[in-house]
UniProtKB/TrEMBL annotation:
GO terms for cellular component: extracellular region; host cell. It is found in: Host cell; Secreted. The keyword Secreted applies. This is Crinkler (CRN). Its main location: host cell. It holds the Pfam family Crinkler. Residues 1-99, 108-189 form the Crinkler effector protein N-terminal domain. Keywords: Secreted. Coiled coil: none annotated.
């Protein structure tokens, strides 16, 4: 639930929504997409479409309300919309806003340990670690002949992201594995396959030169 002045802008509402769920919404507020949860009447928490959302399904009724032409512009005022204007009288259990997340892509540089090859990957921030494994394998099928699920990924970060000019990276290119790399590849630092990339604030908030190490499991 969000309380906000009727004279506020849609962008103000986005900020309020993000503040309510920082653990869930790790994108910047400007990345949220808002739509009115209304088709003749407001949606209600008892509606089948809302129950479907709670099961993590997106029914056609919700998809129809979240079309691009129905997107609320960030600089519009809430009062610009007749149904949220002067005579807006919210009723308990009514749902007023549908919140969508923008699909932003990040460019990641992945270094294969034991080979030193760098693989550039573009992937959506909402993707899972397992999705990243698939992308990495597709980039080097001649090198990575194991199934993608056999790859082990670790963040190439110890206070800061590694850089292509670092001695540790140069050592990998000589097919050596220095202690600095071994320290980053400890089992407790392994990225779980079902974690989302956006779950890790280090990945989302930075623009590193080296994001992760794929390691072939043999």
């Amino acid at each position: 639930p969000v309380k906000i002045k009727i004279s506020a802008s849609v962008q103000d509402l986005k900020e309020h929504i993000r503040e309510k769920a920082p653990d869930l919404i790790r994108l910047g507020a400007h990345m949220l997409k808002l739509y009115l949860a209304r088709d003749g009447r407001w949606l209600n928490s008892g509606d089948d479409d809302i129950k479907a959302l709670q099961r993590k399904e997106v029914p056609d009724g919700i998809k129809n309300l979240m079309q691009e032409q129905k997107l609320l512009g960030p600089f519009a005022k809430l009062s610009d919309h007749a149904c949220i204007g002067k005579y807006f009288n919210p009723v308990p259990e009514d749902i007023h806003i549908l919140v969508g997340l923008s699909e932003r892509e990040v460019a990641m540089e992945c270094v294969v340990v034991c080979d030193g090859r760098t693989l550039p990957v573009k992937i959506k921030i909402s993707a899972f670690v397992q999705d990243l494994k698939e992308h990495i394998r597709e980039k080097a099928p001649d090198l990575i002949r194991l199934g993608a699920h056999m790859l082990k990924l670790y963040l190439a970060r110890d206070g800061r992201w590694l850089n292509s000019g670092d001695d540790d990276i140069k050592a990998l290119q000589r097919k050596e594995v220095p202690d600095g790399i071994k320290n980053l590849m400890q089992e407790q630092k392994l990225l779980g396959p079902f974690a989302k990339l956006s779950d890790d604030r280090k990945i989302f908030q930075s623009r590193p030169r080296r994001h992760s190490y794929p390691r072939r499991t043999v």
